[in-house]
Amino acid sequence: MRQWWSKVARALGRRRNLANELQLEMEAHLQFLIEENLERGMPPEEARAAARRHFGNAASVRERSYQSWQFPTIESFLQDLRFAARGIWRARVFSFIVILTLAVGIGANTAIFSAVYAVLLKPLPFPSGERLVWLGESSAKASGISVTWINFEHWRMENHSFESMAAFQKADLTLTGRGQAVLTHAGVITNEFFRLTGSRPILGRLLTASDDEPRSVATVVVTRAFWAETLSADPEIIGKTITLNGTAYIVIGVLGRDPGFFLPPVDYYLPLRPSATQTSKRDAHEWMRVLGLLKPGVTLSQARSDLDMIMQRLAQADPGPESDHRAFAELLTEHRTGDLRHVFLVLMASVCLVLVLACANIGGLLLIRMTTRAREMAIRTAIGAARSRLARQLVTETALITLIGGAFGIGLAGFGLRAIEVLGPRDIPRLSEARLNLPVLIFAAALTLAVALVCSLVPLVSSEKVNLTIVLKESSTGSGTSRIGHALRGGLVIAEIAVAVILLFTSGILLRSLWAAEALNPGFESKQLLALELQLPPLPYKSEGAILDFYGRLEAALRAQPGVESVGAVNCPPAAGDCRDWWYSVVEKPTPGPQDVPVTLVNMADTAYFRTMRIALVAGRAFSDEDGVGRPTVAVINEEIARASWKDPRSALGQHIKVGGPYMEGPVVEIVGVAANVPQIGLDSPPLPEIYLSANQRVDAALVVMIRTKGNPESMIATVRQTLASIDDNVPIQSLKTADTWLGATLVQRRFTTLLLVLFAGIAVILASIGCYGVFNYWVSCRRQEIAIRMAMGAGTIAILRRTGRQVARLGVIGLVVGLTGSWGASRWLDSLVFGVSTHDLVIFSSAALAAFLIVLLSAAVPLWRATQIDPIEALHEA
Which of 395, 370, 362 lies closest to 471 in space, CA to CA? Predict the structure, then answer.
């Protein structure tokens, strides 16, 4: 113990005197040996030499003494750190390049992992979120269909796999009585929903089973944000009423934290009370889905089989058109991410390739630096430094510079994460929650340590290959010409080119896919077009006549405005998604089997819609004023249905379609026109079958009024608002934007993914160019004497270029082959992300190969030019 405290005292208090004391002690001991030799009769010079031989290597004695007096491991490590820091400062340019490369690689990986963790990996903010299941119905033609109330009741009472179930759906209601009418968003739920999502009130209470009863008083639980912003954070709000769609709802509670289940978030929660039709008909679908909590130990497949057995019993007891329906079950974590999982995995794989490229780049730089320091390592070995000591020093230098790069990378990740949040689509769940939190920082630290370990292998392997005799005879530039060194550097060049080709291909295929989507003819003219989305409140607009009168007056008032060319209305405009779909069948054709009934989108449009949108009519006519109530029900179908059922669209005119198919209730409509296809789901989605019904015959309170303007549509926004207010200022505007904005929103996610991949590909090109240039430049420097000899023997410029360029070409070709092979393998992961082009597009493959060839060419241009400018006399004189 005293010895240990003695070491501590020396380390803390007498560090400066240790070297002097040791030197004096060694000199005294050496002088004692010299005097002994002199007493034996040796001459002074011989006595001095014999004493030194007997004493041994002074440096080794000094090192052993330090180890016995202090903590050798700690002291050695601190010494290595100080030396490494001085080395980094001396080689500032080299260190800056390495740190910047590491910062970009680690920073990009950390930023993307932050988004991946928030969206895909972060546990849901619900109790037992990993056991929550999103439930719907499925058939042979579709999955995730809405659940009927009768099926839900049987599921809830008869299942053996779930602890609890809650039904839910969304609704938009108009808030009045508090200033201007405002469209608000509701989560309509059964009372178990709050328990499943772990919600707690800060005021009042939550919904109970009594609130679900049809004859109960209308109640509402508001979110904290709605309470603070709309209800002025009234502390006495419990028991007061708010008017929604003309009905007074009693506020019974304020949530402490909105569970964030609905996307986008809702303003309040209402009890779900089924209609008389829903409680009497097993096939009465609305928009309801079900959330279930699995019992511990029950698997998803077991739960699905359990619900399927219930559906089979119901089909036997109450046979009908939906006897083939089964349960659809998906873990909530997977349902919320959907296709995003594949997108983020592709992004993560791409950014990992960038890190691999960064590591290869740094490995090449370290190899070059090691070969230039080979003479230094040899000299240090010759004067007594052990190989293990040198290797530890080199590893410390590499680890220190890697840690510095990792620290800067984490800082860079913060900026990258903010950019991802700004550029990313708003509908990506929980992307706004991405932070540099503890799991992300652990990932960044582990990544940095892994990179440090990989990069440290380079000097560790290189230091084992130092040959004292050879290296001390060679010049510093010639010391790196070993076959192993060339093989390592060549392998790094091949890896850099291959990774660059893969990233260029993936970004190129997505970029071309984005161009294809943006260049797609949408089937209508989106320029100079405004979309006014409305949802009429039900109290003043209960009757079909009142709804038709409102929209008729609004369209007439808008047409009368200067700058308006035409006005039409539709229930679901292009790129609005699947607003409504249903079965259909052609009456004049053979009846399809229950499993073969096709599905179509169902839309409603008025008489001026096709003219306003400038959607071409392939055959027949559009709706007219004569297509009203009491007249034969008519429809306009799109070209997709016409060509699927009749080769010639004109043959569809006069034919009849049964909406709902042969096995479901629905009207029979006469086809009077065939319209061109429009992208109903989005610009990057294929056309789907679609039936347009007359808005005068199938009246709907929710319509989007399309306004064709003579000039800039944005200049008409204020006029449109004023015109609507003059008709009825209690009708809230759901949205008002240009058609181009509406269409462009469907490509936000594609643009986001493409932008990131193009950015990664650009980084890869820069890193590969720098890495290849460094290796090629060093390779020419190593052969400076060889090239000088060849030039002195008469070799011309062409011969020098041919010989030096052959090695460059060989590495480039191998890198291209490896990269193109990897691109071909990666293409199968891009199928779901590509639109309008093939994942094996030869143009993209050729472009990626050409870009990689240019990288090699430009990286080698300057080194090869330097090779031809070598002065043989000067080079041989230096040798």
Answer: 370
Contact 679, 574 (CB under 8 A): yes
Amino acid, res. 542? K
Structure tokens at 342: 């594949």
Q: What is the pLDDT of residues 743-762, one digit of tens each?
A: 888 888 888 888 888 888 88
DSSP SS3 for 365: helix
Is the Cα dihedral 735, 741, 742, 745 positive or negative?
Answer: negative
- Sequence-distant (6+) residues with CB within 8 A of 148 are 137, 278, 281, 282, 283, 284, 285, 288
Q: Contact 692/633 with Cβ under 8 angstroms? A: no
Q: Is 1 helix (H, G, I), strand (E, B) or coil?
A: coil
Question: For every residue of 406-473, which 3-state class applies, written as one string?
Answer: HHHHHHHHHHHHHHHHHHCCCCCCCHHHCCCCHHHHHHHHHHHHHHHHHHHHHHHHHHCCCCHHHHHH
Phi, psi (rounded to 5 degrees) for 677: -65, 145
The first and second tokens of residue 595, run together, are 């499993």
Q: Which amino acid is at 506?
A: T
What's the first-to-final CA gap in the chain, in angstroms?
Answer: 59
pLDDT over threshold 50, residue 336: yes
- Burial state string for 686-722 with b = 16 or more CB within 10 A and e = fewer than 16: ebbbbbbbbbbbbbbbebbbbbbbeeebeebbebbee
Output phi, psi for 665, to 5 deg.
Answer: -70, 145
pLDDT confidence band for 478 (50 / 70 / 90): very low
Element (H, E) at 148: none
646-668 pLDDT, tens digit per residue, is 989 999 999 999 998 888 888 99
How many Cβ atoms are within 10 Å of 348's Cβ, its own excluded?
A: 16
DSSP category for residue 561 = S
Q: For residues 831-860, b (16+ Cβ closer than 10 Å) or e, as one string? A: eebbbbbebebeebbebbbebbbebbeebb
For residue 849, the model assigns a pLDDT of 87
Q: Retrieve residue 561's tokens.
A: 């405005």
In DSSP terms, 568 is beta-bridged to 706
